[in-house]
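fold-stage: in
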Amino acid sequence: MDLQDIRKRLEDFRSGKLTSAQKEELHQALSALSEEEHASLFPVEDYLQEGKFQLPEEEVNAALNRLKQTVKPAGRVMWLTNWRKISRYAAILMLVVGSTFLLRKTTGLFNRKAGQTFRVMRVPDGNQGTLILKDGTHITINGGSELLYPESFEGAERLVYLKEGEAYFDIAQDVTHPFIVKTPQVRVRVLGTSFSIRDYRDERHASVSVNSGKIALEHLFKAGPWLELAAGNGSVIDKYKGTITKQDIDTTTTTAWMRGELAFQDAALQQVLQVLQHKYAMHFEVKDSALLKRRFTATFRNNSIQNIMQQLKLMGNINYTITDNLILIQ
């Protein structure tokens, strides 16, 4: 049974069309998947959409209760968003394949050591989160981001996964256990330093910026040597071309969001709107795509979205209307 067949069977399972024998066959097929096949088959974002996998509420709740007994709190969480949508996705998988398979596949992304559990921290647009890991590492997480981290670090590496979004890492030094951050595009390896990563699913470019110390960076989908970055260095990853470009950066600009500031240096309107979307939990609709190429240089400090849009109107000669959380630009 290939991945396409498995996905079709899962849809049939959702619709209640599978016999007991077919459910068992599906269970065996899922259990035989490699970690790479599992990640391809189950991109979590596909199952976070409303309306996906509408199973009977009592079945999902029962699976959720079993999941809660398996996935435990970890670290000192100073601000943690509700992760019920992630949990419901996991619970639905548990109905098909069971908790052992689910945890094996999830933790396999990070560490093969049996029994290790992971937590999910998801910060919605318009918010920021702060997390302190068991090793003393501090992580500041921007809106629209999702981070997976272990209950405790085991093995030779300290490994976390920035599923999507932007985060600033202040790594606790441990020369015998390198800290690894994975995103959908790159892997970053450090011993003790501070740096930030930005990798949103709806943006063409991902970026890494080093504030102090050094890091090593490699592309997950393109073979090549590790790229070393020191303080004041950054890199831009083009997701379409698979290229990594090293450049000098202004760290006060790349970390401005942590201070409640928005700093743009010759940024296209498209980039500006992407930042505003996650900062203010707003959606944007642009009638004329040519407007997206207009460029802006500005710094906003604790401004309201209304104030920012008014300044963009004056600087870029654009018109806009705001209705609830939708901004129409023309």
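fold-stage: in (second)
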Amino acid sequence: MQKPHLNVAVGIIYSKDQSKVLMAQRPKGKSWEDWWEFPGGKIEAGETVSKALARELKEELNIDVTQSYPWLVMNFEYPTHTVELHFEQVLAWQGEIKGLENQLFQWIDPHQHNLTQILPASEPILRCLQLPRQYAITDIQSFDQLDNQLKKLESLFQQGIGMVQFREPKWKDSKQQLEQAFSKVQAFCHQHQKLLLVNSCHPKSWWQQADGVQLRACDAIFLEERPLNKDYWVGVSAHHLADLLYAQKIEADFAVLGHILDTPSHAHEPALGWEALHTFSQEVSLPIYAIGGMSFKLLETALSHGAYGIAGIRFNDFVC
């Protein structure tokens, strides 16, 4: 017999400083009582996801949503039913949070928390939320430019960059100098407590020296499973929906999709555009970074079209 199916709107509610997210404990008398989850509820007939979520958060937590964006859609099977979870990122809200169903709630840091009994469908979301919003890609090219790159990274860190990809396909100097450059960038990132991933054009032995790998689409397609365990991050570069679907198949943690806007590095190739980002983001259940013509000012636009964050070699409003 086919299990009952529910469509559910779920809110990732951020604290005012965007550093924590809200989780609620399921009330007594409901299924999975006392387990922790992201707040939300059933989408009623005729409701959009945003309207359903706004209604549920008002009824459950006494808050009014003032800014939210569509994010992931995940299907999950429980013993008694299946659910399609429509996650929205709630970046701004008004009101005093109260558990109107007598449920407990708690602000948590996704990187470290003491909650036990987290709903299975919420666990992978917590891992996603450990990713930073902004992702920079190196373009050093030669050893004599390394110091300039480190200065640029330091300024980018001050502007919110939380993750760096070491990617040097145009390297002009020796392999030994390339390895030295990698070691210096790695030490610099870790000194500043930023994540460093290595592009798959570089030796595999470097991936685990860093915090993971950014797979080129042409490398990802030859894999049948994720190449590193969950102690490391695995990203996939994507240029169309098929790449995103394959990234999901091998259980990558995220994808970088582009180019979204016109960019000098792809001057003769048409951009995907914002609508493609929105459409593709609803077809996969993994965070997507928008790349191509990005600037810090475009982060909110990217979020509004389903992205988790932005990535770039050159950020258009970069200040050094």
